[in-house]
Design a protein that fits this description.
heterodimer, A: alpha/beta, Ubiquitin-like (UB roll), five-stranded mixed β-sheet, four-stranded mixed β-sheet, 25 helices, globular, B: alpha+beta, Glutaredoxin, 8 helices, 4 strands, elongated
């Protein structure tokens, strides 16, 4: 395909699109609340009202305000409707036709900080395009970055551009993406692989699911650009089995891209070949770890292996392999389009760009937000999130999932970036941000995460395999008011041992929630120790 | 003439080698999946996914069949089948209720939902009711955190579930 053909497809699609587009969210969250019937009823209302020449109802991806779904937005006027029921769906269309009898669903406020304070780089098109039609992606400029890269940049120039942008791994590790690409690119050999890590296992995180369901082509384009830059010809997307809609949309997207010759051999009439296959996970959190993921694609148990050698040097089937998170790859097309300097201008000194967060828990406004790095937790929780639901008070914000920590309310002015979060004993992680209120027991939260790690431990190394069990039992003993000061000390020592001696990231970070709650909420542990009847008896 | 007969005989025995002696048609679906991956050993997880889908769970016979098809030791197939949470070696119930225990769902009371359903069904999470009607399971996080607490009923995600709502639904299954 030539550039003018690509542009023609976009032009044709823009011409085809109706003047008024009613965007109806069809991601997992809204579908679970019946948005499928909402869309069906709106389609019927358009037909019944004879509005088919000006209005079209489009099933789109995640609009982000998940707590108030199903969401419908009428564009270009930007009227947002919340909690739309199938019964009220038709009234939205009637209102467009001029028959607003006041029966429309509750309107949302698109100027609220939840929306207005966001900076949508990765999520620029989610909620505006139909993820199941490649033409809509092309119409908003899709695949032009890939074309530009193949025909106007050398692989080294692409690697340089990504390095200059300052993009860091969005899966949680925060490793400089450009450096990873450079390492793989430098390796000799004809066979290299690109793997997209879609095994989003952190409980409370669904950013990657949203990107895969809402804008799958953005990820495919990012992978193709990465493959061109490092010299790979084969890519894999490893997706959790718990994300069936994402898998279906990816399969469709790959098929459509292949049909247009944007994936496969001789892409855009160049010598560059790249094909993508999907691999489905089977419910193992540890398979999000790079080396375990590779074992899984190779058909084995997901046991991590020691590094070095790093996957960049010897990965899938021994070949140099580039593994990047979904969100990391989703940033690539924008960086190529608008330049590394533009990207590096967003965020802070060491954390460039934007990050998508899944703001959930005891918060008024539940959902996905994409914000520039450096924004404070207070802004996110109080302004965008609208504070604690039910009028309570914030007790702690948990970031980083089972590898992260709890940040107390007193530290809400902490800026959100890789280094600041690590300094306060938590981490950026993949983007899960769970708000906890005054009714949450922090010791129970610590045990909740330890139970998770215990279940998900692959069992290979003793510190993790036995350590998580012992830590869970100690936390249970504390919660059952049977523990003593000696137990508390033993637990803290064990945490440090597991952290220092585990083979992989799962074990190394499993003690983090315990350590962070000990740091900021020691009084809750002490209070439980005080309630030990044996202690009272001795007094 | 003679050559044709020999060829046909050879082909017939080849077909027999690939099919299951019970001539259970479901094994044919496994054959298709294995063939589509060119019988590669690293296709094991895909094949097990298909087996779980077709048979409902991975019984010994099925695992042996897969091992033979991919030329893997049964121990390897068993090792992979038991490593991943999604694969079940025991038959499930007629209906499955999966309660999400991700952080957001937990913070919003998912733990209480599990307790209440366990009480209603008189089984613990991970088990099936004695009459085989309902299986109760706990998922680590299904990624529907915006509509927490989330519960999956027979593969369909339902959000903002209270204990009452979930207990009512499984009660309906028990009586239905």
């Amino acid at each position: 395909m030539e550039l003018n053909e690509l542009l023609e497809i976009g032009e044709k699609e823009r011409t085809r699109q109706k003047e008024i587009r009613v965007h109806c969210c069809t991601s997992t969250g809204c579908l679970a609340a019946n948005s499928g019937d909402v869309k069906k009823n709106m389609d019927k209302a358009v037909k019944d009202g004879g509005l088919g020449d000006r209005v079209e109802v489009v099933g789109v991806g995640c609009m982000g305000f998940c707590g108030k779904g199903p969401l419908v937005q009428v564009d270009p006027e930007e009227t947002l409707y919340e909690e739309v029921t199938p019964e009220k769906a038709a009234s939205i269309i009637e209102a467009i036709g001029g028959k607003d009898n006041g029966g429309t669903p509750v309107k949302g406020d698109v100027r609220h900080p939840f929306f207005a304070r966001q900076m949508r780089v990765v999520r620029e098109n989610t909620g505006k395009i139909d993820p199941e039609r490649i033409e809509e992606y092309i119409a908003v400029g899709g695949y032009q970055s890939l074309y530009h890269v193949i025909h106007e940049m050398s692989p080294n120039e692409v690697v340089d551009e990504i390095s200059k942008s300052g993009l860091r791994g969005r899966g949680g590790g925060g490793f400089p993406t450009g450096l990873k690409w450079a390492t793989v690119a430098k390796m000799p050999g004809d066979q290299k692989y690109v793997i997209c890590n879609g095994d989003e296992g952190d409980p409370g995180a669904f950013m990657d699911r949203s990107v895969l369901e809402s804008d799958p082509h953005l990820v495919l384009e990012g992978m193709a650009i990465a493959a061109y830059a490092v010299g790979a010809n084969h890519g894999f997307i490893y997706v959790r089995a718990e994300y069936p809609l994402a898998i279906a949309r990816l399969e469709k997207a790959i098929k459509q891209a292949k049909k247009y010759g944007i994936l496969g051999s001789q892409i855009f009439d160049s010598p560059f070949d790249f094909k993508i296959d999907i691999r489905i996970g089977a419910g193992a959190f540890v398979c999000g770890e790079e080396t375990a993921l590779i074992q899984s694609i190779e058909g084995g148990r997901g046991n991590p292996v020691p590094r070095p050698p790093y996957p960049a040097q010897s990965g899938l089937w021994g070949a140099p392999t580039l593994i990047n998170n979904v969100e990391s790859l989703a940033n690539i097309a924008a960086i190529i389009k608008r330049g590394a300097e533009w990207y590096a201008g967003i965020g802070t000194e060491n954390s460039k760009g934007t990050k998508i967060f899944a703001l959930t828990g005891k918060i008024e406004n539940n959902g996905l937000i994409e914000v520039p790095m450096g924004i404070t937790l207070r802004e996110i929780v109080e302004e965008m999130g609208g504070g604690v639901s039910g009028g309570g008070t914030v007790k702690a914000i948990q970031t980083g999932g089972p590898s992260g920590g709890c940040i107390p309310a007193s530290m809400l002015d902490t800026p959100v970036d890789y280094d600041s979060l690590t300094k306060v004993g938590s981490m950026m992680g993949s983007g899960g941000m769970v708000v906890m209120d005054q009714d949450t027991s922090m010791v129970e939260v610590a045990r909740f995460y330890m139970e998770f790690c215990r279940e998900e431990s692959c069992g290979k190394c003793i510190p993790c395999r036995a350590g998580t069990v012992q830590l869970y039992d100690l936390l249970t003993k504390i919660l059952n008011k049977q523990a003593t000061q000696a137990d508390l000390e033993k637990m803290e020592n064990l945490c440090n041992m597991v952290k220092d001696t585990s083979l992989c990231g799962l074990g190394m970070t499993a003690p983090n929630p315990v350590l962070s709650t000990l740091r900021y909420f020691k009084e809750e542990y002490e209070a439980l120790l005080q309630e030990n009847p044996l202690l009272a008896a001795r007094r | 003439m003679e050559t044709a007969t020999v060829e046909t005989k050879a082909k017939k025995s080849q077909n027999d080698k690939n099919s299951h002696p019970s001539s259970d048609k479901r094994f044919k679906q496994l054959d298709i999946t294995m063939k589509r991956s060119q019988y590669r050993q690293d296709a094991l997880i895909e094949v097990l996914h298909k087996a779980q889908e077709v048979f409902g769970y991975l019984e010994d016979d099925v695992m042996t069949y897969v091992a033979r098809g991919l030329k893997l030791p049964l121990s390897r197939v068993y090792g992979v089948a038991t490593f991943y949470h999604l694969f079940s070696l025991k038959p499930g119930g007629e209906h499955t209720c999966v309660v999400c225990m991700g952080t957001a769902c937990y913070v919003k009371g998912g733990g209480q939902v599990v307790e209440d359903v366990e009480k209603q069904l008189s089984i613990k999470a991970g088990e099936t009711t004695p009459d085989g009607k309902v299986s109760l399971m706990v998922a680590r996080c299904i990624g529907a955190c915006g509509i927490a607490p989330a519960v999956v009923f027979d593969g369909n995600v339902a959000g903002k579930q209270s204990s009452e709502m979930v207990v009512a639904k499984v009660k309906g299954w028990q009586e239905g």
